[in-house]
Design a protein that fits this description.
The protein has 13 helices and 17 strands. It is an alpha+beta fold and about 500 residues long.
Length: about 500
């Protein structure tokens, strides 16, 4: 289904279910119009819930973006000897096998510039996603009739939301995000990501703070300690995080932050992203959905860090589908216009025919008494020739369009001049399509009008449209001298 709105839908699917947010782009902040948390277990139940969501909210009309969790993707913060984004991505591709046990043909690779360093170096977030992970995610959405336009990484979304909210203004901070199926820890200093780590887990973080949540709290505290220790080892100054913020789409964070702070002996607080990022027109939302808000910022091209994991072949397929839909709409409009003109012509022809019949009746009634019956009959013969309408502009346009191929070639302009002839302009996918079309037009001379045998192309020029190579052409059909006067009379009758 083609997009009909300028709104953005963000989906995050994990072991806890579905998180969905619909936002309206705004220069003053993020306008959240709707926000839902849907519990679902297993792919079949997720597909059913997605179908129900589409039926009730029509999210296919929005710009649909999804988020993949950090614990399913390999990512590294690297220092590279370049500040050129494309060169940095090429370097990551060349060294991909150092970080994952897969060949480059099995990976989707992206690199996002974090910050420039002295001496022409830069810090880069390198992301290596196995194609099967992304494909499984896309196929799950396709089962529900959904097709994402962009696929983000949760780490980039988390850091972008933190940067926009300026969480690290008082000093280095650690961001802990609890998702279904795992957790991730990101360290931010200023506006730059310094460290990231993702951990898969089957724990229910929502039980933390209750007697049943002891195991979950213990695992969370162990992983956070390990992550902070690793960050201190990798940091240039050996310093850790001064502040720790915890976020989640579906967990009672008040209970989690209190229990985690007591367990680790540090202050753990909730990030004030909602008060900072949301525009006054937004609805009140529950929890701290930093990843969803960061994805909305990425979709609006306002994120400090953006990673897009859309497969190239899927991007090309979507672009082809979009162009095909546009072409079908143009063809439909052209068909409606042609039909309307045909009906108008038919109505006029029927009116003239009725008038001729009426004249014939009057001539028959006045024949015994009138003089010059032969002159009137000659006039009637001329009127009948007008009704035949051979060689009109519409007939030539109809023959030209009927002879054009259904795909790979369009006619954008049709000019008819009594003296110069016919000029046709358009676009084609290949040069040979124009040559074949000119040959087809000349072939009409055998069964239609003789003048088509003079059809030839004037030029075929290279061009681009929607980043695609095309060929622009002009085909002319000059009128022979003896046909010019006859054609002029036919058109102006």
């Amino acid at each position: 289904m083609a997009r009909k709105s300028n709104k953005i839908s963000v989906l995050q699917i994990d072991a806890a279910g579905i998180s969905w947010m619909r936002v309206q782009p705004s220069p003053t902040g993020v306008i959240v119009e709707e926000h839902l948390q849907i519990s679902a277990k297993g792919e079949d139940e997720i597909v059913r819930e997605l179908l129900a969501l589409e039926n009730s909210k029509t999210i296919t009309e929005d710009l649909l973006c999804t988020v993949l969790p950090r614990h399913e993707i390999t990512s590294r913060v690297l220092s590279l000897p370049t500040q050129d984004p494309q060169e940095a991505e090429n370097m990551v591709c060349l060294s991909a096998e150092e970080y994952v046990p897969y060949g480059l043909d099995e990976l989707i690779v992206d690199a996002s510039m974090i910050e420039a360093l002295p001496g022409g170096e830069s810090r880069v977030l390198a992301v290596l996603a196995h194609k099967d992970v992304v494909r499984n995610h896309v196929n799950l959405l396709h089962r529900a009739g959904l097709s994402p336009r962009r696929i983000f990484l949760s780490t980039a979304c988390l850091v972008s939301a933190a940067t926009e909210a300026d969480l690290a203004r008082r000093g280095p901070c650690a961001l802990v995000h609890l998702g279904g199926g795992g957790l991730e820890v990101a360290a931010v200093r200023g506006s730059a990501l310094q460290f990231t780590r993702g951990v898969a887990s089957t724990q229910d973080w929502g039980k933390i703070g209750t007697p049943e949540g002891a195991d979950a709290l213990e695992e969370l505290s162990i992983e956070l300690r390990n992550s902070l220790s690793a960050y201190r080892r990798e940091s240039d100054d050996g310093m850790g995080a001064d502040f720790t913020f915890v976020s989640s789409e579906h967990v009672d964070l008040d209970a989690v932050s209190g229990a985690l702070g007591r367990e680790m002996g540090i202050e753990v607080s909730l990030p004030p992203v909602c008060a900072t990022l949301l525009a006054p027109e937004s609805i009140q939302i529950s929890g701290q959905p930093m990843v969803l808000l960061g994805a909305a910022l990425s979709a609006m091209d306002r994120a400090s860090l953006t990673v897009d994991l859309m497969p190239d072949d899927l991007v090309k397929s979507q672009e082809f589908d979009r162009l095909q839909k546009i072409a079908k709409k143009i063809a439909s409009v052209a068909a409606v216009i042609l039909l309307a003109l045909s009906l108008y012509f038919l109505q006029g022809a029927m009116a003239r025919k009725s008038y001729v019949q009426e004249l014939q009746k009057q001539v028959a009634a006045l024949a015994p008494q009138a003089q010059g019956v032969s002159e009137k009959q000659e006039r009637l013969r001329m009127l009948r020739e007008q009704v035949a309408q051979n060689g009109t502009v519409l007939e030539m346009l109809s023959q030209a369009t009927a002879s054009a191929p259904e795909t790979k070639l369009t006619i954008t302009q049709f000019e008819f001049d009594n003296e110069k002839g016919i000029q046709m302009f358009g676009r084609a996918r290949e040069r040979e399509d124009v040559v074949r079309y000119a040959d087809t037009l000349r072939g009409l001379a055998a069964t239609e009008l003789k003048l088509w045998e003079a059809a030839s192309y004037v030029y075929i020029q290279d061009g681009t449209e929607f980043d695609k190579n095309i060929f622009m052409y002009q085909i002319q059909v000059p009128f022979a001298q003896e046909n010019s006067s006859e054609q002029s009379n036919t058109v102006t009758q």
